[in-house]
Amino acid sequence: MSQIVYQRSAGLQDVETHYCPGCHHGIIHKLIAETLVELDLCGTAVGVCPVGCAVYAGNYLNCDFIEAAHGRAPAVATGVKRTHPYLPVFTYQGDGDLAAIGAAEIMHAAMRGERFTTIFVNNAIYGMTGGQMAPTTLEGQKSTTSQLGRDRQHHGLPVRMAELLSTLDGMAYAERVCVADMPSLHKAKRAIKKAFTLQMQGIGFTFVEVLSTCPTNWGMTPVAAGQWVKDTMTKYYPLGVIKDVEGTV
Amino acid sequence: MSKELWKGNEAIGEAAVRAGCDAYFGYPITPQNEIPEYMSRRMQEEHRVFVQAESEIAAINMVYGAAAAGMRAMTSSSSPGISLKQEGISYLIGAELPAVIVNMMRGGPGLGTIQPSQSDYFQATRSPGHGDGRMIVLAPSGIQEAVDLMQDAFDLADRWRTPVMMLADGMIGQMMEPIEWKQRPAQPPVDKPWAATGQADRGHTNFVTSLRLDSVDNEAFNQALQEKYSQIREQETRWEEIDCEGAELILVAFGTTARIALSAARKLRQEGIKAGLFRPITLWPFPSEALLKAATQPGVRAALAVEMSAGQMVEDVRLTLCGAKPVHFFGRTGGMIPEPAQVAQEIRRILKEGQA
Ligand SMILES: Cc1ncc(C[n+]2csc(CCOP(=O)(O)OP(=O)(O)O)c2C)c(N)n1
Ligand code: SF4
What we know:
A: alpha/beta; seven-stranded mixed β-sheet; 39% helix; B: alpha/beta; Rossmann fold; 12 helices; 15 strands; binds thiamine diphosphate; binds iron/sulfur cluster
């Protein structure tokens, strides 16, 4: 007798994604999907997707979605959550979207303690537009607009958004995770689930930074890209809980 | 119904509350500050949503979010702030979302002045943001009309799934006038089956987006938009004509300037000079057909557009009359207000010098 041991989460729509092989966007979608199912939020959740490779997230996740202008997802989510305080609301944003053009919107959403969740996908590069430098690009890392490598004299150093936002009183919970191996993936799932759970308790802004891959623009194989997240990215972007007001009170 | 004395900005805020505005998002800028100030208190009293955003960009995107989630949402600003909202307005158009935007125009360009102006006519009617989009633009010439149009603005936005701009100037925002709160027949609630509010009762997901990557799809969307725009032109164009019948000269003016032009026309009547006023109420769609009719009546020698700008609406007047009658322009710009005597003098000159 055959037995189902693994199947597509009911939190995902039955479609193929357009993500490149080895891209972690798809894995992160899956963790959100499982969270929505386990917390029974598929019927009520409203996601806000970014301008970036995840612009079609609304076609992949099985919940209502709104596509925002580049960087403005936190403002859009504010408009949704303030008018529908009982709906679970989340933004899904890349590092160009959140840390560059949308830096003001995310900072102020955190300052106001907006009661939604942000899933921040940090792949240290602009994926969709072809591998330009992001505020999160590592020192020395090559990109199409830092072809000799990011230079601290010229570009400054990369930004740690989870730490930066955690200085704001409105931030209730911030954790940095990655999905490059199974133990990390389980931790990432726990973090995302916790963020949604805390959101539904209304305690403040919740934020999960997920270190992610862009093998296409990094010029790496999927395996090497996963390894680079673990070996190199986590050195500058340490994994773990950065803020948890619930845990400290 | 008794009349009450109201300041323009506050009256507009109150009218929005009475029109069922669920959420207001704004950012301070003179000369419209009384709108967010008033709304901060009134929306709270009504247990509705008020957020002072960190910028006009954030405010319009909060409107976008609330509108996408099915709510009646609005923002207000003045010229420099409206420039920042253009991105969001384009997205509202692209996602076909209803919203109301108030622009209490001030003189530009740049930081300019806080004095009243009408120099955002091009921005409002030609290019509310990038792309081939339009929005309905309503231009009240007094506080009573502003209050009445505010209700219409929300209704039009919902009916046509489009942003609607209330285009007034600092004068209308700052002055006080007696107004009457008219009892309106209750509008049936507009169904918004497309809104993103959770799929539970629906059984399928909604995805509110303006992205149509395949240009075939995007052209089809644009064609549908244009079709919607021609219906709006047919059904929603509004204007007022005063003393146009038998006039030798047709003044064309909107908002504050229409009142100034009318004073000039009334003054000239005493001298036996007959000037009529054609006042567009919707700036987009521009009431071309009606203007053409009014300005080509027997006896009309010329049209004179009067504006608080270097000449913007006059282009629509020229496009409308297309050589059928001479079109003249008189304007003050940069925050200066034309005086009725100046307008009257210009009319005398046009008619006397045979320039008509
Ligand atoms: C206002 C505006 N500026 C620029 C762009 C072009 N653009 C599209 S996606 C993108 C960056 C995406 O990078 P990121 O946020 O890191 O997401 P990723 O694609 O890596 O997931 C940019 C700059 C745009 N669409 N809109
Ligand atoms: S370009 Fe990079 S971020 Fe975008 S889908 Fe491909 S791998 Fe993922």
